[in-house]
Amino acid sequence: MSVNADLQKERAAATLDSEDFARWWAGGAFHLEERRALERRFYDDPDFAEAVHPSCLSYKERYEQTVARSTRFLAKLRQWQREKQPQLQLDVSTLRDFRLLLSGSLGTGLFQQSFPLRVHFSMFMTTLLGQGTEEQQAQWLNRSWHMDGVLGTYAQTELGHGTFVRGLETRADYDAERQEFILNTPTQSSYKWWPGGLGNTANVAIVLAQLYVRGKHYGLQSFLVRIRDERTHEPLPGVDVGDIGPRLGGNGVNNGFLGLHDVRIPRNQMLMKNAQVLADGTFVQGRPPLLLYGTMVYVRVITLKDVLFGLLQAATIATRYSVVRRQSRIDGDRPEVSVLDHTTQQAKILPQIARGVCYRLVSDWLWRFYEQVLQQLEGGGQGSATGARGNSLPELHALSCCLKAVATDEATEGVELLRKSCGGHGFLSSANFDSIHGLTAAAYTYEGEYTVLLLQTARFLVRQYVDSLKRKVLPASVSYLRDTARLVWGKDLTANCVRALEISALEQVRQAWQSQNGHKSKKVSAEMASNLAGRQLTSAAIAHAHAFFTRNALEELASLRRKGDLSQNVSHVVGQLVELFVIDTFLRQAGCVLRWNSGINGTQLRFVERRYEELLARLRPNAVALVDGFDFHDRVLGSTLGCHDGRVYERLMEEARRNPVNQEPVNASFHSHLLPMMRGKL
Amino acid sequence: MSVNADLQKERAAATLDSEDFARWWAGGAFHLEERRALERRFYDDPDFAEAVHPSCLSYKERYEQTVARSTRFLAKLRQWQREKQPQLQLDVSTLRDFRLLLSGSLGTGLFQQSFPLRVHFSMFMTTLLGQGTEEQQAQWLNRSWHMDGVLGTYAQTELGHGTFVRGLETRADYDAERQEFILNTPTQSSYKWWPGGLGNTANVAIVLAQLYVRGKHYGLQSFLVRIRDERTHEPLPGVDVGDIGPRLGGNGVNNGFLGLHDVRIPRNQMLMKNAQVLADGTFVQGRPPLLLYGTMVYVRVITLKDVLFGLLQAATIATRYSVVRRQSRIDGDRPEVSVLDHTTQQAKILPQIARGVCYRLVSDWLWRFYEQVLQQLEGGGQGSATGARGNSLPELHALSCCLKAVATDEATEGVELLRKSCGGHGFLSSANFDSIHGLTAAAYTYEGEYTVLLLQTARFLVRQYVDSLKRKVLPASVSYLRDTARLVWGKDLTANCVRALEISALEQVRQAWQSQNGHKSKKVSAEMASNLAGRQLTSAAIAHAHAFFTRNALEELASLRRKGDLSQNVSHVVGQLVELFVIDTFLRQAGCVLRWNSGINGTQLRFVERRYEELLARLRPNAVALVDGFDFHDRVLGSTLGCHDGRVYERLMEEARRNPVNQEPVNASFHSHLLPMMRGKL
Predict the structure, then answer these.
(1) What ipTM does the predicted assembly reach?
(2) Acyl-CoA oxidase C-alpha1 domain spans which residues (chains A, B) (predicted)?
(3) Residue A172 in contact with residue A182, Cβ under 8 Å?
(4) Region B310-323 average pLDDT
(5) Is residue B601 a part of any domain in this protein?
(6) A348: closest CA of chain B, how far (Å)
(7) Mean pLDDT over residues B141-167, rounded?
(8) Which residues of A349-358 are buried (b: 16+ CB within 10 A; e: fewer)?
(9) Which of A390-404, A541-555, B230-244 is the least confident region?
(10) Does residue B157 have a known ligand-binding role?
(11) Inter-chain Cβ pairs, chain A and chain B, closer than 8 A
(12) Which chain A residues contact residue B501 at CB under 8 A?
């Protein structure tokens, strides 16, 4: 198959070596080649070909095809793993590696809308490992790894309860006589709702429930509950289970609901690593679940990687399509130009690429910071976890909250903008923006709702600001809260931008604090004062995220260059991208920046804008080489518009032609409805 | 069925009389009652009950069900019309009224994703009326109205050509010997692509094609082409037709593709009101299609109404759900509060309501202006259409472009924000945000792509600005371009905001003009200079839209009050909404506003923000009464979260339970795939 001529021209003229970039992006030549080999193995396998685009299937058909494909996938993946590493040890890192294969590019290429068994390896097994005792692990872990009679899910969220976890209503009452727990969802709003794979797939659920012993409440605990018969898959007595229905995205997940009515489980199916109920009903509180907290942070760090993945998938599709698509003449009677030659189109696409790359730099840093804090916690034991000075957990928590929130929001917006930049064709499901958007948008809510996360960050920021007034030492990421110097506009443009963003963040934290105090002085409770200052608090957290993203991206770039991790041509282009990201953030935040940096004048702003346009012009010739360098396999993009060969119109037609609705020249509804209507003469 | 207690409380405590509001909103008591009666007639009819949520159906099933439902709908609607008006005259206004029934709230309630036969009454019949000669109308119009053998569509856009209409490739060659046109889509990119109903439904298409007579090109003309046999519905020889596949929204439309290969039609099937090809091939150019231009404007005015409809559907759902949903405690150990009690939630929802109401005020004005201009054109004949002074068509065109573009963009963003404000449940298809978003988002591209429309407006603005330098009289909507006075911050807050927005728009128009000139001075063509100034030009057009929206909303409010159209309690609340809209626009545009109004200081901004928060607090108690006043029938909202009775959790469960995937306790894929995998021990 030939490659579109315009794309070929772009590739030939680029100064960026996309293979060079790809090696860096993949974390080195070895990882790049390993992934490519794995992709070839699976994507060339006819077992994973797709006869019909999933968007044409009914919800039920989609479920059935996803189950069929995913069992084949898991078996073949395990086979590959055994070939590679015959003596595999089952532990946290093995599980993590396996999970990354399921959720990363390999899994995405096969399951654009995810699949029901992923939660078994992510939440279910991770919780077993983290909260199960040694005996419990001996009983369950190996069977789970081999899916030997165990198809797990993790059931926390309820129909009426999400963010406010303490409000969960599902309860587990201990019956000391029979040494059993009795699980109940006593109201409609207490039905479990959302767990992946729960609908029709899982046969065991880890259920979060309020523990009661002899009527006394002992807080939330986790219980292993078999919900379907291992052999027949029939729901067990007292179990009311099903799928919650179609959604904006992730329609392969089989999210489910679960009602429990007097479902009894043996005592040893409460996960008891952290707290125990003895046979006689005595409750023993163990070490508080520090690592649970760590898990929440972990998921947010991973989410940052997930959303930048989606953003760059979308950017790749939009970039290639914008070269292939020609529209409107610029000069006289010459042919219509590539859409990417319109500066307005460049301004839509290139900043998204810059954003994705910078999120990657920051997420790499955040990942290292996370591992440091984990070591701190594991080394220091319980003492270091309670927020004592020198412990970085609160800082990590606050950062992971606001970076996840802001990145998810902006990535989702970016995916939408990129879709819109592809005009009508971007609207088609075969372009795949809808699926990418669905998964990215989901992250806005799951694992910490956007506004809730911002408010958590803001609480931390206000606390640090108050500490700064008391001349305490501040953690590095918020040290700018102490520095009240005004902006001095120097020669380094990016430094000016970052400093202006920091000052804006500082002033907004101050304003939020003052607003809270103002409300408190009117005799409302501290909580109500926080509520009333909600707009200021969330704005402050967003401003902090912007300040951090820009400074950290610059620092990471400098560090990569120092370490010599970037070849010269890659370093050059990544440098332009980081600069574009910093300037773009500055300009997008102009409202706050100008308000809180009244010294910035029109000449300075014009200078920033000119540099912005200059960067667009300089990056333009490398746009295709750049997105080639992300090295998304065509299957991972899953898009008629974004394929490497640029055969856009051919693929659009092919995809349309294989739609089942086009398989018969005349649809049955013509004879049953249209013809009678025409004969009846409306 | 009982109504949710929290909703009841809200309704009891409101100061706004929602029936009062509803009467105004519907355009008077008569219209309100007529619509309600019509809705009862159709929504209570068991013929229009839906056994399965459309999102659970396959694409083909959805098509078939939509056809079945829509034929029933059209027949019953025609029946109702005959009862109401036995002596109906078929003309432009009859057609318009009928179309509004199909696309307005009645049609939306029955077809959330639209239906294939709508285009027959909108584009197909309208074009017949506007471009057909009297003989052609005699031959086709009555049959079309009764769908007597005619199911029409309108085929303009091609796979490779949208915005740049001159670039269309489909051609019609006149064969004088046989007095026929020969139609061809000579390339893949010239396939027609997108027309509604084209896929499997329509049997006649109005095809736009380049006319050639003896090899000479005569521009684009419209041709009536039968594409499917009237009796068998088989595609006719040379016709390659099908559905283009699933999309982000509007999946009931049956958008199609069409290839034509030497398809012959008689000479009298070129629509010849404006230009003729005589039997011998002589081409006669008639009056230029002024009203065509009017049609484009008309569609944009209507689009403004459509997107505000979607925005307010979404706002209604989010408001009711935010009262029913309780989450997080504010004060101590008291129960979790309604989400709407969080100020951050109020800031998400109330400004969207304000925006929708103000868009409505502006669209009413725009509609009147459109009718005025139409009269001007019809009265003045051809002379007044060529842009002579005193003709308002260019002004109307520029306004309709930028208002459609900006309103669509902001409404789409608003729908997304409202969805996100409903957390996880907003993500479910049964909440219906996805469908509303799909239809709103489509308007970003169709009937004038966003950026293209902004650039058209900007060209007008720059022209007017240059005129102002020459001291010419400017049209009313841009008269502020002459007024170079700086902002004087007075007592009237909204006046300050509007003036600041106008100055910002003026300065951005000036900057765009300077930027164009700067590029031109570097010896690039005028077109390339415009391309290079693309960012400044689009920003200027957006700024103009904001200035116009805010000023016009204030003026419309004043005029309604003067005329006594608003009862006192409605006037009070609408006044708060307009003020909120103006301030919200000002604050959202703070970046531009502060850049171009350097005199605004921190105290003034704090004052604006305080007023913003005050308005949120004042509107909060009337939020439910307000959305009740939009009077969306539950069927029109189509949402488990937004129903009038607030039985959110019940409906979520009911909707989940009727999903076909939940009809069998054990899905077949368990035996075929999951069980074998478990037995094989992965």
Answers:
(1) 0.97
(2) 293-462
(3) yes
(4) 98
(5) yes
(6) 10
(7) 95
(8) bbbbbbbbbb
(9) A390-404
(10) yes
(11) 389
(12) none
Q: Where are the alpha helices (DSSP H) in B533-567?
A: 534-563
List pLDDT tens digits, range A166-201.
999 999 999 999 999 999 999 999 999 999 999 999
Instruction: Tell me the whole-structure pTM to 2 decimals.
Output: 0.97
Selected catalytic residue, list B413, B416, B447, B449: B447
Phi, then psi, of A221 in degrees rounded to 5: -135, 165
Sequence-distant (6+) residues with CB within 8 A of A368 are none
**Residue B148 in domain:** yes
| Among B112, B113, B187, B200, the residue to mutate for chain A (most A Cβ within 10 A) | B200
Q: Which of B253, B269, B286 finishes a domain?
A: B286
Q: For this structure, is B654 an active site residue?
A: no
pLDDT exceeds 90 at position B202:
yes
**Residue B98, SS3?**
helix
| pLDDT tens string A86-126 | 888 888 889 989 999 998 899 999 999 999 999 999 999 99
Instruction: Write out the DSSP string of A217-273.
Output: EEEEEEEEEE-B-TTT-PBPTTEEEEE---BSS-TTS--EEEEESSEEEEGGGB--S
Instruction: Provide the phi-psi class of B210: left if phi over 0, else alpha when psi is between -120 and 50, else beta.
Output: beta
Q: List the domain range (segments joined by +) for residue B502.
A: 475-630
Q: Quick one: closest CA in B to A82, which residue?
A: B682
Identify the burial level of A63 via C-beta atoms within 10 angstroms of its C-beta, where 0-12 means exposed, 13-18 middle and 19 or more buried: buried
Where residue B509 sits, what CATH number does that domain have?
1.20.140.10
Residue A89, Cβ density class (10 Å: 0-12 exposed, 13-18 middle, ≥19 buried): exposed
Task: Say which of A413, A447, A449, A507 is annotated catalytic.
Answer: A447
How far away is chain B from the Cα of A289, in angstroms, using its nearest Cα?
Answer: 22
List the single best residue of A198, A226, A244 to mutate versus B (max B Cβ within 10 A). A244
Examine the fold and report which residue of B584, B614, B630 is the final residue of a domain before the chain moves on: B630
User: Residue ranges of A for the binding site for FAD?
Assistant: 157, 196
Report helix, strand or coil for B213.
strand
DSSP label at residue A120: I
What residues have CB less than 8 Å from B610, skipping those under 6 apart?
Answer: none
Burial class (CB in 10 A: 0-12, 13-18, 19+), A230: middle
Q: What is the pLDDT of residue B88?
A: 84
Question: For chain B, how many structural domains are there in total?
Answer: 2
* In-domain check, residue B392: no
Rounded to an integer, what distance in angstroms lies between the CA atom of residue A159 and that of residue B641? 12
> Which chain B residues have a beta carbon less than 8 Å from that of A423?
162-163, 445, 449
CB A442 within 8 A of CB A248: yes
B246 and A429: CB-CB below 8 Å? Answer: yes
- Domain of B58, CATH number, reads 2.40.110.10
Among B486, B609, B649, the residue to mutate for chain A (most A Cβ within 10 A)? B649
End-to-end CA distance of chain A: 50
Residues of A in contact with B246 (CB under 8 A): 53, 55-56, 428-430
Question: Residues for chain A: how many in total?
Answer: 682
| Beta carbons of A527 and B332 less than 8 Å apart | yes
Give the residue from A373, A674, A421, A457 showing the smallest Cα distance to B202. Answer: A674
Bridge partner list, A235: A228
- Please report which helix (H) or strand (E) contains residue A31, including its range: helix A29-43
Q: What are A502's two structure tokens?
A: 């920091």
Which residues of A fall within a CB distance of 8 Å from B655?
Answer: 245
For B482-501, the DSSP string reads T--PPP---S-HHHHHHHHH
Is residue A48 within a helix (H) or strand (E), and if so which, with residue range?
none
